[in-house]
């Protein structure tokens, strides 16, 4: 049986307050279907709401003994918003990297064209953590394993999770 892979059978799932097949009680700190970026260690977990990442575009944080840079880049349509996937609202994409490169701790900012720059060298970086221009061109940041989940699922697996809030 053919299937139209550009069509979403779960229209509106992004904004549901009652997630499909979830029988638990959602953690009330966020809306159940809010997207979060999650990080874990053996003993800790933290969730970063996509909304906060979208607003900041770059977040510097310490977690699990590492200094991290979290990038957000617009341009990814939600597959669960509208019937036609390509018409879904822009939720963006996220990436997490160690800020330490050699003996330098880099400080990043977002550029209007969707790239990122470090203050220390002025190099330009893409969402994949590769320097594309400047003194560090060709260098790669160390990626950090992270998870892209709906809040209800993340909080169910990690009920004691810390919830990131911009200071």
TrEMBL record:
<dbReference type="InterPro" id="IPR021516">
    <property type="entry name" value="DUF3179"/>
</dbReference>
<dbReference type="Pfam" id="PF11376">
    <property type="entry name" value="DUF3179"/>
</dbReference>
<protein>
    <recommendedName>
        <fullName>DUF3179 domain-containing protein</fullName>
    </recommendedName>
</protein>
């Amino acid at each position: 049986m053919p299937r139209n892979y550009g069509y979403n059978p779960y229209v509106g799932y992004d904004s549901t307050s009652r997630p499909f097949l979830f029988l638990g009680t959602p953690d009330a700190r966020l809306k159940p279907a809010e997207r979060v970026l999650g990080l874990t260690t053996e003993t800790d977990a933290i969730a970063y709401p996509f909304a906060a990442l979208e607003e900041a575009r770059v977040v510097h944080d310490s977690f699990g003994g590492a200094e991290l840079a979290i990038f957000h880049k617009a341009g990814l349509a939600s597959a669960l918003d509208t019937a036609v996937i390509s018409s879904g609202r822009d939720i963006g994409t996220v990436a997490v990297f160690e800020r330490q490169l050699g003996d330098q701790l880099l400080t990043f900012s977002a550029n209007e064209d969707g790239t990122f720059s470090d203050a220390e060298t002025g190099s330009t970086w893409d969402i994949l953590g590769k320097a594309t221009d400047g003194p560090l061109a060709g260098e790669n940041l160390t990626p950090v394993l992270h998870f892209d989940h709906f809040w209800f699922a993340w909080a169910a697996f990690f009920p004691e999770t810390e919830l990131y809030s911009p200071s």
